[in-house]
Amino acid sequence: MTRLSIPPEIAAKVLFLSDRTCCVCRRKGKPIQIHHIDGNPTNSDINNLAVLCLDCHNETQISGGFHRKLDAEQVRLYQDDWLNLVVRERELKRPIDKVSKEERSLELELATSLAEIYRENNELELLVIHYHNIGNTDLRDKYIEEALKNNPPDESVTFLRSLQKRRDLIPKEIIEREINCMSKNRDWSNLARLYVDIGDYKKAAENYIKGVIEDLREGNLFSAAFYLKELAEEEVIEALFEMALRESTAKGDLWWQVRALQELGWESELKDLLIEKKEKIEKSGNISLQELLAMAEGKREAYIQLRKLEAKSIHRNW
Question: Topology of 151-234 in CATH?
Fold first, then answer.
């Protein structure tokens, strides 16, 4: 059942992790063997080993004809999905329901089929996006490097590296050419995306807003709404609050440090800051800050008294 080149303790762990079940067809009780995913029988790293039944293992040996071949990347996708499912079943201490398994099987069949189609058509960027979307970063990165060997256009280089969050690998001359071209064409939305990719969130926000204003003026309501939604979903807003926090900290402006931390939702950092600046807050006469300090210290009665005092001061101002 197992190859002699695989150390017994490794073989035992592989079989346990896979529940002694083929990771492709997942039929219990079938005769199984441990398969070297990369085809190298001397590479017995646990991540290179998958449990296959004899029928599915035969499919890895098919080199042509009308039968579908299970290649290394497909086996890895099946293996990753199956191992995750086994862990879930063990954690729940009961089988996942049949419908869930069937739906998962259909999704995995689609994932492997799309990967095969994109590879056959040499659509490397689509293959990269596909692996990125299903969370397989190893295969994504493999095909990013393959795609970059083909001297893709500037926008593709920027996009591919941004998927990896490796903006530092984007050549400066490419970034400059992209910025000049998009600025000349008034392509504000894509320019905003480029600035997101390279981590310049201030300019990203500026160009998103330019595009939205232009769309609203021209009556392109769908586009305006779409890019407003995209702006909200990107990390731009959080990044701007972080920038505001750094600036207010550098200036020693306690109020705007507090407000930035509140908007970021960094509650423990906010509490630490308030307690650290307790003396300054108590001397400031700022009731809002004093209220926050009282809450941070767990002084409920003091907070209530401060809220009453604030309410009276508002009435006097009116």
Answer: 1.25.40
